[in-house]
């Protein structure tokens, strides 16, 4: 009976709870088939429900090793990655990267357009939107093995394209290129193999039609106003 529990047992219970589910898998912000025909339903179900879920589960398992993880927001965790082991690097990175990835995508035709401010910054840095796209796709194509392509705002408040291996990202203090991600493309085979097989380039080309510019515009504005 709950009435018979004294205050100290309740406090003990409360303090022991975060160890089981400090990190949780949020539902996708759209249906599993919403990104079709660019990304098929089965890929999204497996990618979100199994791959992303595994990163969350495995990250939670590291809380016994590092209790402070349970109190850290994901960005702070990335920025302090040098303090943690490879399991936190891979699974914490996997959790951050995927939650961003889902948000920067939207059903074809619903993602809007890059803002005026973002387009100006793209022109300044890359000469044109098409050049930025070409460089981004090149970063995606040339990342050997598993990893991610990124558009970031670096510490000079400039846009920059980069890629990372595995589940690393440019927020991590251990990453050679640092910055705030505003756009992310997962180029692990699990992200595209069912539909595109080995054609990573076709996947990257098609992916631009599901970019959620509403979200990217907001991330860009936030990154430009953040003091470094
Ligand atoms: Mn993935």
Task: Give the topology.
Layout: H1 7-16, H2 18-21, H3 41-60, H4 74-79, H5 86-103, H6 116-126, H7 129-142, E1 147-153, E2 159-165, E3 180-186, H8 193-196, H9 200-207, H10 213-225
Antiparallel strand pairs: 1-2, 1-3
Helix pairs in contact: 3-5
The structure holds manganese (II) ion.
Mind explaining what this structure looks like?
- The protein has helices at 7-16, 18-21, 41-60, 74-79, 86-103, 116-126, 129-142, 193-196, 200-207, 213-225; strands at 147-153, 159-165, 180-186.
- It has 228 residues and is mainly alpha-helical.
- A three-stranded antiparallel β-sheet has the order 2-1-3, sandwiched between helices.
- The protein is globular, with a radius of gyration of 19 Å.
- The mean pLDDT is 93.
- Manganese (II) ion is lined by residues 47, 51, 98, 186, 188, 190-191.
How many helices? The count is: 10
Helix content: 40-55%
Order of helices and strands: HHHHHHHEEEHHH
What is the total number of structural domains?
1
Q: From the alpha-carbon coordinates, what is the Rg to the nearest angstrom?
A: 19 Å
By CATH's scheme, which homologous superfamily applies? Iron/manganese superoxide dismutase, C-terminal domain
Strand pairing plus helix content: what structural class? mainly alpha
Instruction: Determine the strand fraction and express it as a percent band.
Output: 5-15%
User: Mind telling me which CATH architecture this is?
Assistant: 3-Layer(bab) Sandwich
- Bound heterogens, unique: manganese (II) ion
CATH topology: minor pseudopilin epsh fold
Shape descriptor reads globular
Say how many strands there are: 3
Sheet with the most strands, sense and barrel status: 3 strands, antiparallel
CATH class: Alpha Beta
Poorly predicted runs: none
**What integer is the average pLDDT?**
93
